[in-house]
Amino acid sequence: MTSHFERFRAGDTAAFDALVAEYTGPAFAAAVQVLRDPSLAEEAVQDAFVRIWQRGRQFDPARGNERSWILAIARNAAIDLLRKRARAFERSIDDAPSVYALRDPDDTWQLVLASLTGDRVRQALEELPAEQQDVIVRAYYQGQRPVDIARELGLPEGTIRSRLRLALTKLRDSLAPVREALEP
Question: Residue 37 has what pLDDT?
Answer without folding.
Answer: 86
